[in-house]
Amino acid sequence: MAKNQSPVGSSVEDHISQRRARSAKYRETQDRLRPFEEIARVVIMRRAQLGLTQQELAERMGTTKSVISRIESGQHRTSTDTLRRLAEALDGHAVIGFEFDSDQQVQPELVRL
What domains can be seen in the chain, in order of their start residue? Predict the structure, then answer.
């Protein structure tokens, strides 16, 4: 069986592409959740690098394991305050930025939280 291929014979990428093509609601939901899924991947990778469990990360943040689980699911909005506390618990800094459509090559405006 090829990499990323399901037992029924189509790849995960193909399945997602087909579903996106068929359903506007699916596309909208996927597009809305994309930033949170990206945050989830960063958090999971950094937590693994630090050798922390979800419980240990939660303790560093002063929150519960269920909050970490929700963040790592990539299915929930996370406030800027929570992102700041999360970044600090992961020995980093949260940065938020703005990009504006422009013909000029302009760097995004970034603010450290």
Answer: 12-112 (1.10.260.40)
